[in-house]
Amino acid sequence: MSYLLRRLRTVAVAATASSIFCSNFETDFRASVKARIPLPFQDPLPFPQGTLPLYSYRDIGSPSPSSDATKDASAAAQGGSKPCNCFKRNTIADAAAKVGPAVVNIAVTHDYLGVTAGKSIGSGTIIDKDGTILTCAHVVVNFQGTTSLSKGKIEVTLHDGRSFEGKVINADLHSDIAIVKINSKTPLPEVKLGSSSRLRPGDWVIALGCPLSLQNTVTAGIVSCVDRKSSDLGFAGMNREYIQTDCAINGGNSGGPLVNIDGELVGVNHMKVMAADGLSFSVPVDSVSKIIQQFKKRGRVIRPWLGLKMLDLNDNLIAELKVRSPAFPDVDKGILVPMGS
């Protein structure tokens, strides 16, 4: 070690925006170091203060950013029309503040023979200033076959603490989506519906709601999968797709909003995997939008289907069909399709 220290007694270090190297002027020892430096530390920041460009790295020795890119960034910093495509320090907090006033707590009182038997908690999102609230159906109704029955008295608590009695307007079993209505004398804050089809794995998302009755709770994470099939989760006979995220959600988050960093609704928080962390699932807003449109148009969701009614031919049935129609073909087995749709 002492030998190396003596040999390195004369060292010159040079650093530029495109390279860092260290070398010894003595001829019997030479060393070089190649480094990878994030752009913010190489050049003067052309971005607004408090922002950091995403994925802006370049290898040492590679060409500097083009003059066009520099001009675009400078224009953004000066309030120009071109965006800087930056993730700001307060991006998540700003999105949460934008959506938060429209997130509600839904408490459903369960009555049995006139006696309060318990209370369940969920979340919801105001999607219209008139008091229209989007939530999960399992939060507010019980299904008996295809018929939905309210679980009990619904109390909706707003972000500002005001409480209203809610009424279930529509509910769909297959999608687990419901619409609840409250009557307010003043317009209420609402959330803009975004597009779940534009999400990509790795995009930032924010979940809001009232987990375990803790109102105004915000968690953030990324999209893990944009089209997780219900069959992957063990739901046989149900053709659903979910947005999978690693946002922390718990009991009480059901029905709450999943939003992007622009504060737009991209999903409805639905469930999590109990035996794992970071596995949460939401109903995509594109599917929800179609359901809402059918609610408005028909009051329920009508799904097209294609099916056949078939009869297995046997000797008795063949004989009866020949009596009814002499033109019936001479067969001894097969399947008859009396109806199709």
UniProtKB/TrEMBL annotation:
SUPFAM superfamilies: Trypsin-like serine proteases. It holds the Pfam family Trypsin_2. It comes from the Eukaryota. PANTHER family: PROTEASE DO-LIKE 14-RELATED (PTHR22939:SF125), SERINE PROTEASE FAMILY S1C HTRA-RELATED (PTHR22939). Belongs to the peptidase S1C family. This is Protease Do-like 14. It comes from Stylosanthes scabra.
